[in-house]
Amino acid sequence: MNRYLTLRCEVPLELAETAAFFLHEEGAAGVEVLDDEIRPPPGAPKLPEGKARVTGYFGAETDPEAIRARLEALVPGAVVGWEILDEEPWADCWKLHFRPVQVRDSFWVVPPWEKAPEGTATVVIEPGMAFGTGNHETTALCLDFAADLVRPGTSVLDLGCGSGILGIAAARLGAGRVLMLDNDPVAVEIARKNAVANGFPELEASGVPVEELDETFDLVLANILAVTLIELASAVVRCVRPGGSVILSGITVDQAAEVRAVYETLGLAFREERRRGEWSALHLERAR
């Protein structure tokens, strides 16, 4: 029987979503957050006041010490521990937290073991070891923008594609050329499999660094951490076709102004900010 790593961290309550998103970015197949609004299950230790418990589920080959070091650097006060689980309970745990997501009235994202209402456009996602189920606010924000911006034939770059959910959703909405990029080879393979499973075998998934990309797109969807969005800003802007748009997500509300300023300095015009909880997504446009 395969075995998997479950990594738990106790963090300040206000940083729970930041820790959860970080674990997703590190490749967690599922992330669970217990805070003052969610009662811990029977037998679980009670949460200290002002704290949240965030749990990520990873493959057994994952290096927990490396994740712990990066998490503690990102989230001051994080207390991290881990253990190994057998395959069956691990799978059951994370699947409990992957629910169907309604993007718009007639557009749904569902796992393979669920069904969307009849007559709706559906994207079926098996995340495996990649981030992207539609349940996280950052992904939902990108999906919401995509529903407004993708038109028949729109070319789309899904940067940091994870499971491929955004690129596949764009294809379902009528996009033309779709390229899904991720620096994690596991995510690239999962994105390819999900594209085929949704009837889009022509979608390309690649591990080519965005800095090396020599192509422009009508729409760039970048759902990655704020620090990475800032580091890659010049490369991201180069990928936006004149008159095209970029959606920047993976940003907390407190980080939005800094990220926006960097991209405006590079010549993009701010169009709109949308928020869900403590998360923000920015729409900027390149001049024609």
Secondary structure elements and pairings:
Blueprint lengths: L2 E10 L3 H10 L4 E5 L16 E9 L4 H11 L4 E8 H9 L5 E4 L2 E4 L10 E4 L12 H13 L6 E4 L5 H8 L5 E4 L3 H13 L6 E3 L10 E7 L2 H6 L1 H6 L1 E13 L3 H10 L3 E8 L2 E7 L3
Parallel strand pairs: 6-7, 8-9, 8-11, 9-10, 11-12
Antiparallel strand pairs: 1-3, 1-4, 2-3, 5-6, 12-14, 13-14
Can you describe this structure?
With about 290 residues, the protein is of the alpha/beta class. It has two domains: about 5-95, Alpha-Beta Plaits, CATH 3.30.70; about 100-285, Rossmann fold (3-Layer(aba) Sandwich). The protein is about 30% helix and about 30% strand. The strands form three sheets. Strands 10-9-8-11-12-14-13 form a seven-stranded mixed β-sheet, with helices on both faces. The protein has a four-stranded antiparallel β-sheet with strand order 2-3-1-4. Strand 9, helix 6 and strand 10 (about 205) form a beta-alpha-beta unit. Helix 4 runs parallel beside helix 5 (about 165-170). The radius of gyration is 18 Å and the shape is globular. The N and C termini lie far apart (about 55 Å). The model is unreliable at about 40-45 (pLDDT under 50).
